[in-house]
């Protein structure tokens, strides 16, 4: 669909994070409800052109594991990104209902790996912000990711990017000041951390007193593991170990994980009732 500012009715606020605020909006004529992310930005003319070109890329992406992107509008000092409205994000599920069962986490892993692999291999995009609040779910049981890179330039040219998001998801190599470039494997690490959080309800390093302490531990300590007492399969533990390989040059990329991980293979072979599980939460 194509639309202008006047075609859109602003409804409720859903939430806000580091980069902007998300609202429910409705397209007046079609009654289509969308999620709209508002970000403040003041780019230069040239930069604006480049960013809008990057946003074009988002509009051609097609994957069942990525939220559909309807388009964007620049209004005054704000850029609005319009996307498919999902029911909630996994961060909120976790906070309201506690840890997720292994089979649901497995489905999250499969969706996320597919989405990230698609973005990289087809569009050469690195997500850079993998965490439960960027993994969305709906009543149909679809699991989809959002907020991929929203292009690095867009985020950097936003007036209000309040520093970085939570530190705990960041891989050791991203904290190495001598490393100028990092690759998709940084997101593999973040996925491993997210899996621990989804299974336990807690982020590793949640006991730390400051961001500096978190960063120091990420760099200096062995990678986080699940608590021994938690009953999850060996395959699942092994998957986390693989994602949290400290030396990123030895950490597997998406395709290897999708094709060789026993955890992934085991749950790809069965139909996990995600929709039923989601419905049971809201009862
Ligand atoms: P963050 O991801 O850092 O928490 P965001 O500004 O990206 O902050 O998102 C804020 C909240 O809006 C998220 O926690 C999520 O629950 C919600 N949200 C974002 N995009 C959508 C969407 N497409 N559909 C439904 N809810 C969304
Ligand atoms: Mg987000």
UniProtKB/TrEMBL annotation:
One of its GO terms (biological process) is stress-activated MAPK cascade. It comes from the Eukaryota. Its EC number is 2.7.12.2. Keywords: ATP-binding, Kinase, Nucleotide-binding, Serine/threonine-protein kinase, Transferase. One of its GO terms (molecular function) is JUN kinase kinase activity. Transmembrane segments: none annotated. Residues 8-264 form the Protein kinase domain. ATP binds at residue 38. Belongs to the protein kinase superfamily. STE Ser/Thr protein kinase family. MAP kinase kinase subfamily. This is mitogen-activated protein kinase kinase. It comes from Oopsacas minuta.
